[in-house]
Design a protein that fits this description.
The protein has 17 helices and eight strands. The chain is an alpha/beta fold. It folds into two domains: about 180 residues; about 180 residues, von Willebrand factor, type A domain (Rossmann fold). Strand 2 and strand 3 form a beta hairpin. The protein is rod-shaped, with a radius of gyration of 49 Å.
């Protein structure tokens, strides 16, 4: 009986041992059903625990991981200083209120945390001053456009110069062996050579048709013709057109003045007329009234009369025309006097350059100094604010040290406060200095260019006058 029980027990152990080995025997068979060529597949299967060992690192690098902090971005000086001011900045500062706020801070803060809290309370508002520096325009612009190498007038001035030449029969008369017409032509040519290049110039003749006979009066009195119209740089063409002008008929001054209106560009800002005549109106017109209308027109026109060898009665009448036209009457009795008068008139035009130079140079200086003043004020005000902020921070530091004792990170915080002061103060100084120097450089260049160009043109025109006048 005992032997039977032992036999049964031993048989049971053998059976159980055989069952424990069965998975190892069946595993290869399972693999073979999927890939008959992978006889070693079980040994190549990756352990799940091995496959998971790198996942924590992957998760740390993922931007979607809420536990990961973004890389620190370095702020520019301007971005640091453009942060909003603290609660007690500027006029809001009150020592008792500041101390009450400091009492609310935890005594366990680090130096960096203390600095952050102090700035939330006491940082001053530098934004207006930094904005001024960032947007500051250092270029100096003067309204007077710089002239070109040749004579021009400031672009804001659109000058029209009209020359009306009397071609009536009386201009045949001679003075000192030269006809009045030839003398007038020479004077006009000399005058035209000196015109500003961007001035609009027109030359009109009148009384150049018909004869002095009554039968030709109607034709002659209607005769007025613009024989040249162009820029001052084109006045070399005047010599050619004048060659065909011969003294002929009557003297229609009023008709010639009335025709000037159609010669003037509507964009003209200044218009001057020079009437060269050796006599009074002989066609029944009213030159006094026409001159007045020109002077009161939208484009105000000044009418000057040059009486060339005119008798006393004629001078009296022509003077009335000039007065009505807002200009002047000048009587000349020979070709030299005529040239001198036109040279005098030319000197007035040359004076445009002197005025341009003086006005432009003065404006350049004023703008430079104004900009420099703005820079200085911005710099000084900002530095004053830096000093104020630093004093308030140091007062807060002293209060916290007294309150918290040795546990307080005074040394580190003092270093941070000092560094902030030096940073902000130096930014204001260096930026202000850089902008100031740029403004000085630009302003001086504009000033020097205007002075040099103005002097050059005045000297060249003086030489031109002396050589060709």
């Amino acid at each position: 009986m005992i032997r039977s029980s032992v036999f049964i027990f031993v048989t049971l152990l053998v059976f159980l041992a055989g069952c424990s080995q069965e998975p190892e025997k069946t595993a290869p068979t399972i693999q073979d059903t999927t890939d008959s060529n992978q006889s070693n597949a079980p040994s190549e299967i990756q352990n799940p625990s091995d496959s998971d060992q790198h996942e924590p690192n992957s998760d740390l690098q993922s931007p979607t991981d809420p536990g990961q902090s973004d890389p620190q971005t370095t702020l520019t000086d301007e971005q640091i200083l453009m942060k909003p001011p603290g609660q007690f900045a500027g006029s809001n500062y009150n020592e008792q209120n500041v101390q009450a706020a400091l009492d609310q801070l935890s005594p366990d803060l680090t130096a960096d945390q203390y600095e952050e809290e102090l700035l939330l309370l006491l940082a001053e508002d530098y934004r207006p001053y930094v904005t001024t520096f960032i947007n500051f325009e250092t270029e100096i612009k003067v309204n007077n456009q710089r002239p070109s190498a040749k004579i021009t007038l400031p672009s804001s001035r659109k000058l029209h110069i009209s020359i009306l030449l009397d071609a009536s029969g009386s201009m045949k008369a001679e003075i000192a062996g030269k006809s009045k017409m030839d003398s007038a032509k020479e004077a006009i040519l000399s005058f035209a050579e000196k015109m500003p290049e961007n001035a609009e110039v027109s030359l009109r003749v009148y009384g150049h048709k018909g004869t002095g006979n009554k039968k030709d009066k109607e034709v002659s009195c209607k005769s007025t013709e613009e024989i040249f119209h162009g820029q001052g740089e084109e006045t070399n063409q005047i010599k050619t057109v004048l060659q065909g002008v011969k003294p002929a008929g009557w003297t229609p001054i009023a008709n010639a003045l009335k025709s000037v209106k159609q010669d003037i560009n509507p964009e003209t800002t200044n218009s001057i007329v020079y009437v060269v005549s050796d006599g009074i109106e002989t066609c029944g017109g009213n030159p006094v009234q026409i001159a007045k209308e020109l002077n009161q027109a939208k484009v105000k026109t000044v009418v000057n009369i040059i009486g060339f060898d005119v008798d006393h009665e004629g001078q009296k009448l022509l003077r009335q025309v000039a007065t009505s036209g807002g200009g002047e009457f000048i009587s000349v009795d020979n070709d030299e006097a005529l040239k001198k008068y036109l040279d005098k008139t030319y000197d007035k035009l040359r004076g445009e350059w002197t005025l341009w130079k003086e006005k432009g140079a003065g404006e350049a200086n004023i703008k430079k100094e104004t900009k420099q003043g703005t820079i200085n004020k911005t710099q000084e005000t900002m530095q004053g604010l830096v000093n104020k902020e630093n004093a308030n921070l140091l007062a807060a530091l002293t209060y916290l040290e007294t309150k918290n004792g040795k546990a307080f990170p005074r040394s580190e915080l003092l270093t941070s406060i000092t560094e902030r002061k030096n940073f902000a103060w130096t930014y204001a100084r260096d930026t202000g200095k850089r902008l100031y120097e740029e403004v000085s450089k630009n302003g001086n260049k504009v000033y020097d260019d205007i002075i040099d160009e103005g002097n050059k043109q005045v000297n060249e025109l003086t030489s031109k006058k002396n050589n060709k006048g």
